Amino acid sequence: MTSPEEVLNYTIFHYNSVEITVLSIIKILLVLLVTKIILIFIRKAFSLTAKRKSLSDADWAMFYIIIKYFIYLLGLTYILHIIGVDVTMLIAGSSALLIGLGIGIKQYLYDLFSGMILLFERKIIIGDIIELEDGKIVKITDMGMRFSLGIDRDDVIIMIPNSLLISNKIIFWKQNKEFSRFSVSVGVAYGSDTNLVSKLLVEAALLHEKVSKKKKPKVWLTEFGDSSLNFKLLFWTQEKFRIEQIKSDINFNINKLFYENGITIPFPQRDVHIK
């Protein structure tokens, strides 16, 4: 009569060091079962974390996929060990290939992990306005694992590698309900009524519907220039992304009010004497 031990040790396949027995098949099935159970728990943990952090399914799905493949890799390594494959020799034999592959996809992995950091930390979210290192102002419209999409003030869509958002200097403007201060500068001729100039500048700002009426604009006399008295108009607005359009509108208002009130904006002049 065949004993259970003989049944378990019955060899189904044998080649060199590789040997598949009934016991090894049972172990392989157990490894697959345990791997499946672990992945179910991890998926539920990710789902609960995503709800607490208000992440969408698309945000955390990529994280789960990465971890899933890593766990599958561990399971495959253990299965190969069960049937007698020398995993150490495989790794040693493919080390050169792995190094080359690592160098080739280094930037890809850098962008990928940067995306993971951004999605988990939530320091930058869709709708935020940032100033990139080259001075370009961008509103974030979409965030992926490797790239984020933004739109600039010319309505041009820009693809930004996530690694740039992690490693480069970013001027970060939170897209919220707080007012931010901006300014426009203008020079007037010497001899102008400075009180009238100040009054007209404030009026020019308040004429714009998107300039705060609660935080009243301020006017500074900043410099006695070569040919003009230089003023700076300070105003507050919530419209951060289209601020250049607001500044342009205010400049139009200033030009109109100055013209109506006889305020001159000088320009440099030189007298040339010919002997």
| Percentage of residues in helical conformation | 40-55%
Instruction: Estimate the strand proportion.
Output: 15-25%
Main β-sheet, in a few words? 5 strands, antiparallel
Q: How many separate domains make up the residues?
A: 3
Count up the helices: 9
Rounded to the nearest angstrom, the radius of gyration is 34 Å
Write down the overall geometry. rod-shaped
Stretches where pLDDT is under 50 for at least 5 consecutive residues are none
Number of strands: 10
String of helices and strands: HEEHHHHHEEEEHEEHEEH
Structural class: alpha+beta
Average pLDDT for all residues: 80
Measure the end-to-end span.
131 Å
Biggest sheet: strand arrangement: 6-5-4-3-7
Task: Describe what you observe in this structure.
The chain is α+β, with helices and mostly antiparallel strands and 275 residues long. The protein has 9 helices and 10 strands. It folds into 3 domains: 4-93, no CATH class; 125-173, Roll (SH3 type barrels), CATH 2.30.30; 180-260, Alpha-Beta Plaits, CATH 3.30.70.100. The protein has helices at 4-8, 22-52, 57-82, 87-93, 95-104, 106-121, 162-167, 194-206, 243-260; strands spanning 11-15, 18-21, 129-131, 137-143, 147-152, 157-161, 171-173, 180-188, 218-224, 229-237. A 5-stranded antiparallel beta sheet has the order 6-5-4-3-7. Strands 8-10-9 form a 3-stranded antiparallel beta sheet, with helices on one face. Strands 1-2 form a two-stranded antiparallel sheet. The longest helix is centred in the first third of the chain and has 31 residues, at 22-52. The model has no long low-confidence stretch (mean pLDDT 80).
